[in-house]
Design brief:
Blueprint: E1 4-6, E2 23-27, H1 32-40, E3 44-48, E4 51-55, E5 60-63, H2 72-80, E6 84-87, H3 91-99, H4 113-124, E7 128-135, E8 138-148, E9 151-159, H5 164-179, E10 183-187, H6 191-194, E11 199-201, H7 203-210
Parallel strand pairs: 1-2, 9-10
Antiparallel strand pairs: 2-4, 3-4, 5-10, 5-11, 6-7, 7-8, 8-9
Helix pairs in contact: 3-4
């Protein structure tokens, strides 16, 4: 399939047009409305320098909350009260911390100021959510993502203390399960998330979860 080049028009090609590596389109902007459209269609952004790249990989790496695995070492950390956690208390701080944390498959940060500004607007609109992990009143870990109906799209996490982000993720995954979230989108494979129960599913199956009605809205 040819790579689609986006312009000012608020539009994405069908995800079936994505290349073998999942790259679907490039260009356009990362405005809040375009981001919402992307997530609704199973597409997520990364950056290549200043150019937005839009991805829809097949298969998709996901975690079903009911399949979450909490290993004994983390159970001990949770019981000891090493950390505390909150939701949506410091969204801006979490995103900015994530912007300085390198992802394993990225040479540099993919969270630039334009994207951060749009995420802050989505947070104000109730779509973007953060988890904060605290130790001695200091922010030592966290994650953020986008809620779409019955799906939570995990975007990035950071940790300045060992196990902090994992602690936040595990607790939030359990909360999402209780809220009725049926699938956590992890996007692409990572050994860390695989150890917690994440696995690959077909993109077609992933898209079906995006279409589930959310009667809580």
């Amino acid at each position: 399939m040819p790579l689609h080049l986006l312009n000012d028009r608020l539009w994405f090609p069908p995800v079936e047009d994505a290349m073998d590596d999942g790259l679907l389109a490039m260009g356009g902007d990362v405005s809040p409305d375009r981001l919402l459209l992307a997530y609704h269609q199973g597409i997520f952004p990364w950056y290549n320098d200043d150019l937005p790249l839009w991805w829809a990989p097949d298969p998709r790496f996901v975690l079903f909350p009911d399949e979450l695995r909490i290993h004994k070492s983390m159970q001990s950390i949770i019981r000891k009260g090493t950390f505390s956690w909150t939701v949506n208390q410091s969204f801006s701080a979490v995103v900015k911390k994530c912007s300085t944390s390198l992802r394993p498959h990225q040479d540099g940060t993919w969270l630039n100021e334009e994207l951060i500004d749009s995420l802050l607007i989505l947070h104000q609109r109730g779509y973007a959510h953060s988890v904060e992990v605290w130790q001695n009143n200091q922010l030592v870990g966290g994650l953020y993502g986008i809620k779409m109906g019955k799906v939570f799209c995990g975007e990035s996490m950071f940790s300045s203390v060992s196990n902090a982000s994992k602690f936040g993720f595990l607790n939030y995954a359990l909360q999402l399960r209780d809220e009725g979230i049926q699938l956590i989108d992890c996007q692409v494979y990572s050994e860390h998330l695989a150890s917690l129960g994440a696995r690959m599913i077909e993109r077609k199956k992933f898209m079906e979860y995006l279409l589930l009605p959310d009667y809580s809205e």
